[in-house]
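Lecture 7 notes: from sequence to structure.

We start with a single chain of 396 residues. Read the sequence below before looking at the structure.
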Amino acid sequence: MSTLQASNEVAITGIGTALEERKKVGQRLYQFKMTQTTERKGALITTITTKSYTTSDTYKTYLSKYREQAVILWGLVEQLFFSGDYFSYCTVDKEKGVIKNSTINYSNPSAANKDIQKLIEKYKDTYCKGELFWRLTLEGFKDIDEDSTYEPPFTNWNDFKEKVVDVQEYQTNGSLGQYRSLYNQVKHWKLERAKVLNKINEISDKFYKIYEPYIKEGTWTDSNYLTDNEYYWAAEDVLEDSCKPKLTYNINVIDISPLVEYSDDYKFDLGDTTYLEDIDFFGVNEKTGLPNRQKVIISEITYSLDKPQENSITVQNYTSAFDDLFESISASVQSLTYNENTYKRSSNFTAKQYVQTDSLQGTLDMGDLTLIDANDNNIVLDESGTQGNAIDNASS
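Now the structure, written as tokens:
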């Protein structure tokens, strides 16, 4: 798009330059078109001499330059305003003050109004596409008596450039129309992107207003992991658990289940599940308008024998109840495994950090000596000797 914009700017500047050069050369041609008449009066006779310079070499040189500038000018006009044989005829709506574009086929102008259609049919064999567009839009046909009454919608190039070209009002055809189409697409994308960003900012603001008190920063370290991958995935698990906001709800209840008429419908026990609604924290479903609900489990019931009205229950997230259980078991097994490896290694050394004689003897007899162990089994010690692979974590 930037390349197309640069090309259009060069072409627009080129039109201005070609017009200036054309004007200068045209002025010189006009001088040579003038016929010089000389009158000499004698005593008895008067002599009148007429001389024309249009046949001179100088005139022909200027005429060639004038035609060169015309070729450049019409070529730039076709580049900017034509797509094949199609161009946009621009007019000014005086009531609304806007530019109207109507696409016309130079070869078959049947879609144009009658006046424009008549002019195109009459002069399309006389003028090239660029010059005919120029005359229809700016210059008119003032040099042709029978069509001198036609009034183009713009007075000159600067007028057309200011009202149409500079403000990107020329549509559909030519490199200018192509650029406007791309410009409108980019503008539309930017507006849509701005809407999305505004929506994201709005959601972010709502998020921070609700969850800001629960956002915490911290560092987690664990020396039990020897490889980068294990360390990373363990950190992922810790982060997944830590990112869940922890809420505590104290609920005062009146247990009416002892009453016969309510014993079946209002009885609750440990492990029962229910739903919790908290509009401030969980929000409202935008589609249904109903509060979002969180499934919870009754994890504790406190009874006050003296004051039954002070009975209370404790609830917690339903899924995390089991997640915590299995994570606790997994952590215990993992800790046990690492401790076992630590004990194995330490049992092979004396208090002064020498290798135990029994360990060396056992190694010679059974090939069983553990000096280092890891989950990746990166070191192997057997009858063929010691073999090992590099540990990913260079700091270990």
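The chain has a mean pLDDT of 77. Keep this in mind for problem set 3.
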